[in-house]
Write a structure and sequence with these properties.
The chain is mostly helical. Helix content is 73%, strand content 0%. The radius of gyration is 17 Å and the shape is elongated.
Length: 193
């Protein structure tokens, strides 16, 4: 998975110092399973001292804000790659899920960090992404992938929750990594029948 994530995740390719990159990756790993983890827990997981952590992040809020922006950037990168392929909406949905499901740990812990969404930069980027998703749902409806009477907000929520479910099932070992995005796609396009 790390190779796949590095190919599409700016966090892994950003040119950040090795210590900072290690801290970000450790923070994601810990916070995905323990959203309340302390900075000390994250520093210990990264194998660095608290002084090193505080040199890069003045507070837990600063770390979470950077993780939020990294998650947004990772999803933007997947979206850009999918758009560049100029696929029909149904195929674009599958390609998007295949790119984003492996990144579930990068953004779902942010649900317990609601204060990060009050940060102006994070808030603006998140609203932009949600508008892009809403526009994509409208395209899915126009191309007959999604029934026109289902509210866009419901479809967006379903996509979000299936990304989380796919990532969680892979991480728990219940579903093979190669199957998660396809199962999320099938559930979205065919239900569970």
């Amino acid at each position: 998975m790390l190779t796949a994530v590095r190919s599409i995740c700016p966090m892994a390719n950003s040119g950040k110092s090795t210590a900072k990159q290690t801290l970000l990756q450790s923070a994601v790993a810990i916070l995905a399973y323990n959203p309340g983890a302390s900075l000390q827990d994250i520093a210990a997981q990264a194998g660095v001292g608290r002084a090193t952590l505080y040199r890069h992040f003045s507070s837990r809020e600063a770390l979470v804000r950077e993780l939020a922006m990294e998650a947004i950037a990772a999803i933007d990168q997947v979206t850009t790659q999918v758009r560049a392929q100029e696929l029909p909406a149904k195929e674009a949905l599958l390609a998007f899920l295949e790119g984003v499901v492996p990144l579930g740990d990068r953004f779902h812990f942010l649900g317990s960090e609601s204060s990060v969404y009050t940060e102006p930069e994070v808030s603006m980027a998140y609203k932009r992404q949600m508008q892009e998703l809403d526009d994509f749902v409208t395209t899915l409806k126009k191309e007959g992938v999604v029934a026109p009477d289902i509210p866009n907000a419901w479809v967006s929520t379903a996509i979000d929750m299936l990304i989380w479910a796919g990532w969680s099932a892979v991480e728990s070992g219940d579903i093979a990594r190669n199957d998660a995005a396809k199962l999320a796609y099938r559930t979205l396009t065919q239900g569970l029948s």
